[in-house]
């Protein structure tokens, strides 16, 4: 076995690989850019080597710098994680030339599966079900229209070298093919330096389901079930689960066997993923093969008990798989929620800055590591590469963590995820926790009835928060009334002005939240309180004390997990995707509050505000210009993405306050309208 491996990556995946290597007794080497000098993966590794400036194209994806780090440290093998160099055949070739083991597949497999046209041809020859389409190169728009007509509308136009949704368009008619083909071709050339295109049938009611395969270099392989990855935004996965709530055993077996056939056809060795599009009738079609460890691999590990990183290391060491297909059993259900540094209330724009508070829910061990008496209990796993006080950089992917839960069934896994999301404390940056909570409570997700259009269809106007049902608001009101009473008793004790604190603190309180009002009466005892709202008495029990930012409360026998912040006469409460201002007042205070004028929000309609921290790439207008609705005004870059800011209405530019190269904070004024 290797004595030392280098992880050619950063963030949570580097930390993930280090954990397995440490358990196997293997020393680890981290690499880091200037921006990652204080990163968690650097602290966790046995050694660390600096490789350059923050931009990835000057550090993490420069093959020569990684090779120098290998030589400096004497690492015998390299795990590439995902992204960066993980699917770069030139990197695999460079390692081979130096006699360094690549903890991934052979160079030939990477090359064969890295080109969408080549991979689809190989898949078809291997007997894998493929989407009807034209695999050859397409000369121009006229040929594209002819091919689309033969395939049948709707069709999907894709860049051969594409990824991340670049160079991809759906066409429902000849006109859309003619217009979209040239646009996709130009986009592909600009993004990848390769404008080759292909066309295939667009699958309606599509679900994105992938099969995990694991092969050794001795011709043996197994498939480890599937992952449902249909909940996506801009072609990027947000929530994944294993197994899929849609597949039956026969379809699973067929997809698994075809995936292995493809792996064997290209001489695959290591962990890999074959992605499929599945229609409403469970017809499945090959999409692509990812020749690396997937971001969502933890859900497969949770339902199979197999450490994929360990298996990759053993395969790279030349070992034979100790697993047979009959050994693979899918146990229970697992869900992964990707936690991103992005603001869901601002169109999911990237958010950067310092994590002033980062408190993930407590992780629990899977079955194999649990005492016998607790086996079958829900599991929480959090794969992360950040820490409280650390910086979320503008240079890399905005993922903060991958929160995973396991349960003996899907309902338990979802319930566990709901509570884990509510208990996840993050402050200092924008994040998508509220949106993830909204997904977990969505009826279509609960029913397992989602397609890749789920987010576009269910949140067509973007995410604007969650409106909780009345009974849920009532339970929160009861909890907050009881908590406020405890805080008031604490306050009077600290002041030292009252002898009988409980008697002096009243029992009648008016709670307002989410547009609702609840008149409450509290009868407290040593173990909790009975809160009367109307004709209903709700028993409230909790060990919350004033100052705690997380409250676990039982209300009427149902559990609530609340993130709590103190405000005047109440709390800011966040739970289940809702962000609530909860006022708890005496009846007289509530009467007076009703007489107070409402604060009017400042008028920003004549201002273009920066929606996220970032760097101004360019300003597209000048003072005095007349602009139309939808016209580009400025471009701001954050986290490797350029964001074009457009006019929401017609107007005249009165003043420009920023210039290319300026670093802006959220809500800085870029320009003003007359």
- Structural class by sheet pairing and helices: alpha+beta
Question: Which whole number gives the mean pLDDT?
Answer: 91
What number of domains? 6
Poorly predicted segments = none
Rg, Cα atoms, Å: 28 Å
Largest sheet: 8 strands, antiparallel
- The CATH superfamily of the largest domain appears as ATP-grasp fold, B domain
Tell me the number of helical segments per DSSP (H or I, 4 or more residues long). Answer: 18
Largest beta sheet: what is the strand line-up?
14-13-10-11-12-15-22-20
Subunit organisation of the chains: single chain
| Rough outline | globular
> Termini, distance in Å?
70 Å
Question: DSSP strand (E) fraction?
Answer: 25-35%
Helix content: 25-40%
What is the CATH third-level topology name of the largest domain? D-amino Acid Aminotransferase, Chain A, domain 1
Top-tier CATH class of the largest domain: Alpha Beta
**CATH architecture identity of the largest domain:** 2-Layer Sandwich
Total beta strands: 39
Essential attributes:
alpha+beta, Rossmann fold
Provide a descriptive summary of the structure in words:
The model has no long low-confidence stretch (mean pLDDT 91). A hairpin with a 5-residue loop joins β10 and β11. The chain has six domains: 100 residues, Rossmann fold (3-Layer(aba) Sandwich); 154 residues, ATP-grasp fold, B domain (D-amino Acid Aminotransferase, Chain A, domain 1, 2-Layer Sandwich); 69 residues, Dna Ligase, domain 1, CATH 3.30.1490; 132 residues, ATP-grasp fold, B domain (D-amino Acid Aminotransferase, Chain A, domain 1, 2-Layer Sandwich); 124 residues, 2-Layer Sandwich (Glycoprotein, Type 4 Pilin), CATH 3.30.700; 67 residues, OB fold (Dihydrolipoamide Acetyltransferase, E2P) (Beta Barrel), CATH 2.40.50. It contains 18 helices and 39 strands. The chain has an eight-stranded antiparallel sheet with strand order 14-13-10-11-12-15-22-20, with helices on both faces. It has an eight-stranded antiparallel beta barrel with strand order 24-25-26-27-28-29-30-31, surrounded by four helices. The radius of gyration is 28 Å and the shape is globular. α12 packs antiparallel against α13. Helix content is 28%, strand content 32%. The chain is an alpha+beta fold and 674 residues long. The longest helix is centred in the last third of the chain and has 26 residues. It starts with a strand and ends with a strand.
């Amino acid at each position: 076995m290797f004595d030392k491996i280098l992880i050619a990556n950063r963030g949570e995946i580097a930390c993930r690989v280090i954990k397995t290597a440490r358990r196997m007794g293997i020393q680890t080497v981290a690499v880091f850019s200037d921006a990652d000098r204080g990163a968690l993966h650097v602290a966790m590794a046995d050694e660390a080597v600096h490789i350059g400036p923050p931009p990835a194209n000057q550090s993490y994806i420069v093959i020569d710098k990684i090779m120098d780090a290998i030589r400096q440290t004497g690492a015998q093998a390299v795990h590439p994680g995902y992204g960066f160099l993980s699917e770069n055949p030139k990197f695999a070739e460079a390692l081979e030339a130096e006699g360094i083991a690549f903890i991934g597949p052979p160079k030939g497999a990477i090359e064969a599966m890295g080109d969408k046209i080549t991979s689809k041809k190989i898949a078809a020859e291997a007997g894998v079900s493929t989407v009807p389409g034209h695999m050859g190169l397409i000369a121009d728009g006229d040929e594209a229209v002819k091919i689309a007509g033969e395939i049948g509308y709707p069709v999907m136009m894709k860049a051969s070298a594409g990824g991340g949704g670049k160079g991809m368009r759906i066409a429902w008619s000849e006109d859309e093919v003619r217009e979209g083909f040239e646009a996709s071709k130009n986009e592909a050339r600009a993004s990848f330096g390769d404008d080759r295109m292909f066309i295939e049938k667009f699958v309606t009611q599509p679900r994105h389901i992938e099969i995990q395969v694991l092969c050794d270099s001795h011709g043996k392989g197994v498939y480890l079930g599937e992952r449902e990855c249909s909940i996506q935004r801009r072609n990027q996965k947000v929530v994944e689960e294993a197994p899929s709530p849609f597949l039956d055993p026969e379809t699973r077996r067929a997809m698994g066997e075809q995936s292995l056939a493809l792996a064997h056809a290209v001489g695959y060795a290591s962990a890999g993923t074959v992605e499929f599009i599945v229609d409403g009738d469970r017809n499945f079609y090959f999409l692509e093969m990812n020749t690396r460890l997937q971001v969502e691999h933890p859900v497969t590990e949770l339902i199979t008990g197999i450490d994929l990183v360990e298996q990759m290391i053993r395969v790279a060491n030349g070992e034979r798989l100790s697993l047979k297909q009959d050994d693979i059993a899918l146990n229970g259900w697992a869900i992964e929620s990707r936690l991103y540094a992005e603001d869901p209330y601002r169109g999911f724009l990237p958010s950067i800055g310092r994590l002033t508070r980062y408190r993930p829910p407590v992780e629990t061990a899977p079955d194999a590591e649990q005492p016998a008496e607790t086996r079958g209990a829900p599991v929480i796993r959090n794969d992360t590469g950040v820490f409280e006080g650390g910086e979320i950089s503008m240079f890399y992917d905005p993922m903060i963590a991958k929160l995973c839960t396991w349960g003996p069934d899907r309902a338990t896994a979802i319930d566990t995820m709901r509570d884990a999301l509510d208990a996840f404390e993050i402050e200092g940056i924008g994040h998508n926790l509220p949106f993830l909570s909204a997904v977990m409570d969505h009826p279509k997700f609960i029913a397992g009835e989602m397609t890749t259009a789920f987010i576009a269809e269910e949140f067509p106007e973007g995410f604007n928060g969650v409106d909780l049902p009345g009974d849920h608001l009532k339970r929160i009101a009861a909890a907050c009334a009881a908590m406020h009473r405890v805080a008031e008793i604490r306050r009077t004790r600290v002041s030292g002005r009252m002898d009988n604190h409980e008697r002096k603190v009243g029992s009648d309180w008016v709670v307002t939240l989410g547009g609702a009002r609840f008149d409450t009466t509290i009868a407290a005892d040593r173990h909790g309180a009975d809160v009367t709202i109307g004709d209903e008495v709700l028993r409230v029990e909790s060990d919350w004390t004033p100052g705690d930012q997380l409250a676990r409360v039982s209300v009427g026998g149902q559990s609530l997990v609340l993130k709590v912040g103190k405000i005047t006469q109440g709390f800011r409460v966040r739970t289940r995707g809702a962000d609530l201002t909860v006022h708890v007042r005496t009846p007289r205070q509530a009467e007076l509050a009703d007489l107070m004028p409402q604060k009017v929000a400042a008028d920003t309609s004549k201002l273009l505000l920066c929606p996220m921290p970032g760097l101004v790439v360019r300003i597209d207008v000048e003072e005095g210009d007349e602009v139309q609705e939808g016209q580009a005004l400025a471009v701001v870059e954050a986290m490797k993405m350029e964001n074009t800011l457009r006019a929401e209405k017609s107007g005249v530019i009165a003043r420009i306050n920023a210039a290319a190269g300026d670093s802006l904070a959220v809500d800085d004024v870029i320009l003003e309208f007359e």
